[in-house]
Amino acid sequence: MIAEDHRDTGICVSIVWIHMLEEDTEMAADRSAREIFHHPLVRHFYDPHKRAGQAIAQSLGGQEDEVAWDIYLFYDAGSAWDETPPTPTAWMHQCTGCHWADPAHHQYGDDLVQELRKTMLKLTDFKFHDPGRLVDGDLELVLVEKDPGDPAAGHVPAYRFSMRMAGQGEEIGGITLRVGNTHHVVTYAGHIGYGVHAEHRGHRYAARACRLLLPLARSHGLHTLWITCKPDNAASRRTCEIIGAELVEIVDLPEDTDMYQRGERQKCRYRLDL
Fold first, then answer.
1. What three-state secondary structure class fits 220?
2. What is the DSSP string of 72-137?
């Protein structure tokens, strides 16, 4: 799967199954979703009335009764479908004879695969965003490092912030946002990691800092955040609950992880849908 090569970039893939042919039933779509396109990066939708296809066709210059299908669309992070589909950053298709099916965007077979790969490489070149001023009452997050990561080592790009008393500069802790969906991040490390100095605990600084980072996470196309902590860390688990994350499971750490080497053996996995 092409998207697998870019899973550490925060990409989200949606497949809309449209009932165009007699055999395009909901059961057939469900079977394909489970057996062919089953992947944690992919969300599936079934469109029996062709509404999505009609809306996309019209957004690309098609006539009212035309339906876009066999089409591949790329959107920037943060794009939203309100009353009409957003304008795609790039697109290609395998259809002919339709008003929306611009011949300049027609690709087929190996040429299609090649063009999909080229487009993915072009669009997933990671760029750090300006987080702006992040303040909540007496808490301020100050960006101290932009870590580009190391794909070869499985490290994703990350923002590192110092938690400080607003207007005073005193550091009270730190928080990191990791931008990527590698197996290590999603299962063990988490997208967000935080720590508050002992003398400043009890003011919900960790939970408030997490909330301040949610718009930045959304700007990178992250729709779900995973936060992990040790099972016996009651304060961290409470932080996850305060921000609305749900405990999914407790997993054993592989021996080759740095966390295992530090003496940890398990992680609680909390999920927060944005």
1. coil
2. EEE--TT---SSSPPPPSEEEE---S-SS--GGGB--HHHHHHHHHHHHHHHT---------EEET
Second-level CATH architecture of 134-273: 3-Layer(aba) Sandwich (3.40)
CA–CA gap between residue 204 and residue 105 (Å, rounded): 51
Token readout for 43 is 């969300």
* Predicted TM-score (pTM) above 0.70: no
Q: Which residues contact 61 (CB under 8 A, 6 or more apart)?
A: 99, 100, 102
- pLDDT value at 255 more than 90: yes
Residue 8 has pLDDT above 60, yes or no: no
CB 161 within 8 A of CB 197: no
Q: Check if the beta carbon of residue 172 is closer than 8 Å to that of residue 163.
A: yes
Give the separation between CA 46 and CA 35, rounded to whole angstroms. Answer: 16
Model confidence pLDDT, tens digit, residues 179-190: 988 889 999 999
**Sequence ranges of the domains in the chain:** 2-123, 134-273
How confident is the model at residue 80, as a pLDDT? 76
Token digits of residue 114? 């090649």
Residue 211, C-beta contacts closer than 8 angstroms, at least 6 positions apart: 136, 243
The tokens of 111 are what?
């040429």
